[in-house]
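Q: Convert this sequence to structure tokens.
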Amino acid sequence: MLRSMDKAQTDLGSEAPAAPAAEGDLRVLAELVEIQMSIARATQQEALQAPALGVDYCQRIATVARSVRLTLLLKDKLSRQVDERRKAAAKREAAQEDFHDLRVKLAMLAAAYEVSEDNEEINRRVTEVREQLERPEVVELIEASRAPVAVAALCRRWGFPVRVERWLEMADEAMEQLGFIPPQDGEDDEDPPEPRSAASGRRPKSPDTG
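A:
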């Protein structure tokens, strides 16, 4: 709805790289096929116009043909992987948009949890955040803003560190575990980085987000 107001503001800072590594690999493979075909044409021309004694041109052509065939197979496999990743990314982004409110709320609960030093503070902060998230002006802000904008604004308003990417990352991890969004790139989950030093001695269960 009104979320489009923030789209131009956030797109510049949140765009994915225009040329992922896999797409660069595809261009390299396409160039390699062209080189191999140039070798094949040069070999054919030499065989027809100025053949050298003792050279098996059929074998040369067969070797180049096999190389071209293997390169094309690799290119096709990589192309399918790129398409699958694009589809997975699009599906994930659509799910994040569908559950936009939940994603922002989980991000703010993650922030409250991470800045707390003990169980008592966790319970107090999480309760406060839950109550604040129900306030009409906060609901309106979340509805009218893209997730990074809403999380940054609420962090500043409530005195949390403005670690937008980290809080949204934690929200996405929770949403994956709850089955709201698919895993990124369809890959298996990796062990998430430890958000706080193990020396703190506090690693209670994450707050129930209800």
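The mean pLDDT is 79.
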